[in-house]
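Sequence in, structure out. Go.
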Amino acid sequence: MSFTGVIGGAGNRILTGLVHLLAITRIHPNVFTCVGLFINGAAAWLFAQGEFAKAGIVVLLGAVFDLVDGPVARHSNKVTRFGGFLDSVIDRYSDLILLMGMLVWYARIDRFSYIVLTAAAMTGSVLISYARARSENEIPKCKVGFLERPERIVLIIIGALSDHMAAVLWVIAVLANWTVIQRILYTWTETTRIDAEQPAAEAVPVEASDKKSSGKLQQTYRSV
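Output:
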């Protein structure tokens, strides 16, 4: 077995043990989801104070709760539609609140260029999720692109602990928005193909279809 395989196996065993332990407590998985948000809120406060290394450790702790809420729900047979929706919404809040903490710090030290950079990273992070959710209202699947939520969280942790957050924000700002562009192009390609395959007589007018599907996304914002 390779070194990475050993590390991955050890991580899975630790996660499985933690999931079993948390399931025994009979605490509802939605509680863990909300706890993760509060932890990320604490990390955001540390970012706002310029305590990036401490914030990185707290984000790492919050990531644990992001990992366990879904598995605990499945293990304890408490999977619900609302739970999936709540998890997705809370993930968006967690993403934004961390970057908002950085915005506050960069504003306090008068680093305008970093404020713009963080805002660009925020925009890409939100639109990645929206692009997939909206796309999957038109096509079966849209999971193209590299920079999904786990990668973004890992990058933030690395940037905070290594004191190279500016470089990390550049990576997130560029790759997050590039992922959005990839999803737009992929959706355009797929919808064009689907429209071309439909007989003209059976084609649904775009305006009528849009009105019918408005506000009725089949997929909620994912943890991406």
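Check: Confidence is low (pLDDT under 50) at residues 216-223. Residues 165-197 form the longest helix (33 residues).
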